[in-house]
Amino acid sequence: MKSSLEIFDLETGACSVVLTTDRLIEAPNWAPSGDHLVVNGDGRLFRVPLSRPELQEIDTGFADRCNNDHGLSPDGGTLVISHHVEDGSCIFTLPAEGGEPTRITEKTPSYWHGWSPDGRTLAYCAKRDGTFAIHTIPVGGGEETRLTDEEGHADGPDYTPEGDWIWFNSTRGGTMQLWRMRPDGSEQEQMTDDERINWFPHPRPTGPEVLYVSYEGGTEGHPRDHEVELRLLDPRDGTIRTLEPVFGGQGTINVPCWEPGGRRFAFVRYARP
Predict the structure, then answer these.
(1) Which of 46, 87, 90, 172 is deepest in the core (most CB within 10 A)?
(2) How confident is the model at residue 258 (pLDDT cuts 50, 70, 90)?
(3) Where are the annotated segments for Disordered (predicted)?
């Protein structure tokens, strides 16, 4: 599996390659410092310095089954990971430079996706009572709060830069489309309604646009090795721009991937068989 870690520039519309590797890497997360990316691969996490790109393994202690749901805190000091324990994925935090993880969610499976701008709350999708729904929990752990109760699969929560909305994707309308709601779960509204299958919305740090990955109609789940499109939605008027066709899907932009300045974002493209 050849992976190409790339950056898309909104001003120029051009892609640049950060690095390529023969291993499977996924889900780039841009550090708040702006100088490196974080990706996962083979159950581990890696730092990729932009000045001299290479995969530098991050010490995650016992957590050697990390999936592609990970990210850095708004201040850059803490790394959140989703690591598979005996009965499913569980959310942990650890120092950004590496160290022993601290368990945050007691229930499984839980998959992290968003960090509130004030750094106090984690948003994630979790399967409870047979249904994947959106939940939040204090960053230090405690009682989780379920925000979505409707039938269907809800996934991929990510906060707007002001923290006034959580964007997510849901099948409650029949197919996977983009939605948003207030941080307390109120005012839930559908934001896309087309023939595509839309996943993983990421609000732009400088607003108001939202980046997401779009599959062809009829696609089940969010598989890898598909022809997808990276799209940008303007919620003010519903305008959608197709930015880049990509061979990818799962692993391309699963987690927040914008640079702090909001001009560029990182993504992973895979080699066609």
Answers:
(1) 90
(2) very high
(3) 142-164
Domain residue limits at 259? 3-62+142-270
Beta bridge partners of 125: 111, 134
Q: Is residue 120 part of a domain?
A: no
Distances (CA, A) of 237 to 76, 79, 191, 207, 233: 33, 35, 10, 14, 9
| Tens-place pLDDT, residues 57-115 | 999 999 999 999 999 999 999 999 999 999 999 999 999 999 999 999 999 999 999 99
Spatial distance between the Cα atoms of 258 and 267, rounded to a whole number of angstroms: 9
- Indicate the helix (H) or strand (E) that contains 15: strand 14-21
Q: Is 106 within the bounds of a domain?
A: no
Total domains, the chain: 1
Residue type, 63: A
Q: Residue range 194-207: average pLDDT? A: 97
